[in-house]
Amino acid sequence: MTLKSPKLLTPQSLVELPKTGMLITSPSGTKAIYSQSIYDSVANETTQSWYLLDLATNELHPLSQTFAQGDVCEMVFLDDVHLAVLQGRESSQFPHVFVFDMDHLTKEPYQLTDFPTEIGALRYNSASQLLGFAASVHEDGDLATVQSQDQTDSGTRGSATLYDRLPVRFWDSYLPASNVKKNNIFVVNLSIKDAKYIVEGKPHNLLVGSGLCCPHMVYGDADDYAFSPDGKYIAFQCKYDGRDSAWQTAQYIYVVSTQGGKEIKCLNNDIHAFSYGPQFASDGTLFYLQTMTPQYDADRLRIIAYDGQSRKIIADHWQHSPMSLAISQDSQTIYVTADEQAHLKIFAIDVKTEEITVLTHNHTATFVNVTKDGLLFRLGSMTHPHVIQSLNTTTLDVHTYSVTPALQEATIDLKLPEPEEFWFKGAMDDNVHGWIVKPAGFEPDKKYPVAFLVHGGPQMPFRDNWVPGWNPQIFTSAGYAVVGINRHGSTGFGREFCDCLGENWGSHPLVDLENGLDYALKQYSFLDAHKVIGLGFSFGGYLINWLNGHSSKYKALVNHGGMFSLMGTYYGIDELFFAEREFGGPPYQKSARETYEKYSPSNYVSNWKTPTLVIHGGKDYRIPETEGIATFTALQRQGVPSKFLYYPDEPHEITKSANLIRWYEEVLDWMNHWVKAD
């Protein structure tokens, strides 16, 4: 009998692994639907599949045939049986909403909507029988005139856009000028006739004439707004739109009547900072997340409760920063996700006593949904792709679902090294956290080259999570030991640890990285100190440039999307508030300029000696592509061995599967060239 060897990850096999996506539950929490995508590198195609999970029987039903008539854009449950699906079909210019019967999956769906323009961000309130959706409309707010006005604009104005204020672009997209289209929230009545949902009357634009925009034009979705339990109100979030909005984080929470004719009320415009995620509890209390510091996007988020009259901070004594909210069916408990020591955990907060209980202790939990008996969520770790788990919040019993046969088959022989955690003394004599992952097929008597991964954010920590890009197990499968440091600025290690990064970019992180690497090399004898390669993305890419000017410990470096000139980046970045908060103001102010100059890698290029692979995307509007080109120029002009991997169609991250495979191949080739992993 021949035993099968554990599978190793290759760039192709990693990218082709089935990926678990969105997760939603039915109103009673007895059913769930989630998505899975599988990339075929030969055909260069991604197939999206959907699955219905019966939480009472644990039965899994594929929905591929059910949804076979068109591409699924998004969906929302109308009740426990009927699912409204926004679906694009060849017969229609725009996607429309179709209703599917989840108790009879072979039953023919029927069309619910037929609006004259594209819609999205679906929500439904059963008490009022209102369907909520969003559409991008002109100043008149009318769905019926969108196409004709679009054609008029395109026919008479050419291709130019005239801006009279910032921002011009965001992430990977140019924004519309302030005097053109905005997303607005609409509601329309539904009723049931002959056992079918039908639309009654015309949609009503809740934001017409207000000048407000929701959902956000680039990253907005249905999470940007929520119905009250009785459907009489909608709470929504809206980015501040003043002339200084490009250098402000301000985003406010509003409440509007679904019946119209009443003033739109802003709940928190006295706090010129970021807020998001409005959700109503069943008792009518509105909850949302709020920062308190203007311009600081990584400020601690507080849980705000609004009872219709006044605001209250829930569990203000808690120093964690919750990232998402889910509210129990009895309104007594708030479930939040928050970083704690490199794991994204689920916590339960008692609304009355403000007592906090941790429910999950390891890995990374996302897409938290409330069910009949507790919670349903997605869980990922460094050793396994995301699975679906349920947690009974009374018994604390956990059940892991097989997700899909495709994922089960792809991972059955996948045995990946377990990550280990360590602590060391870093900057300011603080305890700093680190990860080490041994190479696949580890032999204790051998020496291994080191992939030293430097995370970005800047505040996003190096979590125990499964990620398509920058997956540490690609490097372990290629024969490298992986070391990663959660340096100062990382969330989940206390507020002071996070907040001290401001105006200290090149100081505390440098000490942490150098001390962390030294500690690992001393503590783990299998690490080869002469074969260390530093790799970083975004702020991690900035730190790679910084290390090149301040350290000689690395055999080679990889910089993806990192800053070269801090002042140059400021004038091209899409979020001015970020740079102004991190460096103490705009660079034309003398006091701030000193910080920009002090920590700009461009001022230390004469020290650069380490071979570097530079990677950048042409649609990167967070860190403009010229920063990557400038880095490559500085290396080439000085004769430092270097290469430039350029993706004209990619933003700050690699988003396309074929591009990601090439990314891994080029990075591994570069690493192997300089240290040659056995």
TrEMBL record:
One of its GO terms (biological process) is proteolysis. It comes from the Eukaryota. GO terms for molecular function: serine-type endopeptidase activity. The keyword Transcription regulation does not apply. Residues 470-676 form the Peptidase S9 prolyl oligopeptidase catalytic domain. Coiled coil: none annotated. The keyword DNA-binding does not apply. Pfam families: Peptidase_S9 (PF00326). Keywords: Hydrolase, Protease, Signal. Belongs to the peptidase S9C family. PANTHER family: DIPEPTIDYL-PEPTIDASE 5 (PTHR42776:SF13), SERINE PEPTIDASE S9 FAMILY MEMBER (PTHR42776). This is Dipeptidyl-peptidase V. It comes from Mortierella isabellina. The lineage of its organism: Eukaryota, Fungi, Fungi incertae sedis, Mucoromycota, Mucoromycotina.
